[in-house]
UniProtKB/TrEMBL annotation:
GO terms for cellular component: cytoplasm. This is 3-oxoacyl-[acyl-carrier-protein] reductase /acetoacetyl-CoA reductase. It comes from Litoreibacter meonggei. It holds the Pfam family adh_short_C2. Residues 3-183 form the Ketoreductase domain. The keyword Metal-binding does not apply. One of its GO terms (molecular function) is acetoacetyl-CoA reductase activity. InterPro entries: Acetoacetyl-CoA_reductase (IPR011283), KR_dom (IPR057326), NAD(P)-bd_dom_sf (IPR036291), Sc_DH/Rdtase_CS (IPR020904), SDR (IPR050259), SDR_fam (IPR002347). NCBIfam families: AcAcCoA_reduct, PRK12824.1, PRK12826.1-2. GO terms for biological process: monocarboxylic acid metabolic process; poly-hydroxybutyrate biosynthetic process. Belongs to the short-chain dehydrogenases/reductases (SDR) family. The lineage of its organism: Bacteria, Pseudomonadati, Pseudomonadota, Alphaproteobacteria, Rhodobacterales. Keywords: Oxidoreductase.
Length: 241
């Protein structure tokens, strides 16, 4: 029986690459998304991976959604907390709504997904929780007090939960990507990319979603059983934490 992996925000961007890589590695994969039905349907048509719509910021929706996934394909053994949003603004212009949307999705969403899955992982004495944070949670970023705080929170969450899971065979790790070549990046003007962004990255290029996905596949594997509570930077040398 193949292991079951659940990837939040797994229908596009980095999450889609993670879902596909886990599928290629032999996992039964379920992917969640927030509202973009068209992308999710196209992703399912392309990959055969079933998609589920719910808001990770809503605890009850997460609990119900996870129960549905487990009824459909079995107990979740690998959880990838990838869903995330930005609502950028300099602090003096940031609204309480921008703050709370990012905290609810990027930090509380990680609690809301991990908490209902945790008891089953403890009972089965196996689990993998892998959260996608960001380089900006490590170093901060102008106009991202909300995002940097939430992503730094994901790192603290990981370090604490890893201690609780260690004796139960559950590893908990966090990956901090730098600039990754997703749709979001393709909207950046070429001049800004060449003159501002690329010079900050010692390897001289953006990361590819598949490079993050391969890191997830490794952390999910039995081979990574001694790695827990770790913060893995994947940023081309841009920030060496
Ligand atoms: N791209 C980068 O360069 C970069 C760098 C560092 C870290 N990251 C982090 O990597 C992760 C993925 O980023 P990405 O650029 O691939 O994002 P993306 O292309 O914008 O995709 C985000 C995914 O998350 C889902 N999602 C968003 N809010 C959600 C919610 N409240 N509930 C459930 N699902 C939700 C989206 O669903 P819909 O399709 O329905 O909207 C989508 O599937 C994020 O956590 C991001 O912060 C990205």
């Amino acid at each position: 029986m193949s292991r079951v992996a659940l990837v939040t925000g797994g229908s596009r961007g980095i999450g889609a690459a993670i879902s596909k890589a886990l599928q290629a590695a032999g996992y039964s994969v379920a992917a969640t998304y927030a509202g973009n039905d068209e992308k999710a349907a196209a992703f399912t048509a392309e990959t055969g991976i079933k998609t589920y719509k719910w808001d990770v910021a809503d605890y009850d929706a997460c609990a119900a959604g996870i129960a549905q996934v487990e009824a459909d394909i079995g107990p979740v053994e690998v959880l990838v907390n990838n869903a995330g949003i930005t609502r950028d603004a300099p602090f003096h212009k940031m609204t309480p709504q921008q703050w709370s949307e990012v905290m609810s999705t990027n930090l509380s969403g990680v609690f809301n997904m991990s908490h209902p899955i945790w008891p089953g992982m403890r009972e089965r004495k196996f689990g993998r929780i892998i959260t996608i944070s960001s380089i900006n949670g490590q170093k901060g970023q102008f106009a991202q007090t909300n995002y940097a705080a939430a992503k730094a929170g994901d790192i603290g969450f990981t370090k604490a939960l890893a201690q609780e899971g260690a004796r139960a065979g559950i590893t908990v790790n966090v990956i901090c990507p730098g600039y990754i070549n997703t749709e979001m990046m393709s909207t950046i003007p070429e001049k800004v990319m060449n003159d501002v962004i690329l010079p900050q990255i010692p390897v001289g290029r953006l990361g590819e979603p598949e490079e993050i996905a391969r890191t997830v596949v490794f952390l999910a594997s039995d081979d990574a059983g001694f790695i827990t509570g770790s913060t893995i930077s994947a940023n081309g040398g841009q920030y060496m934490a």
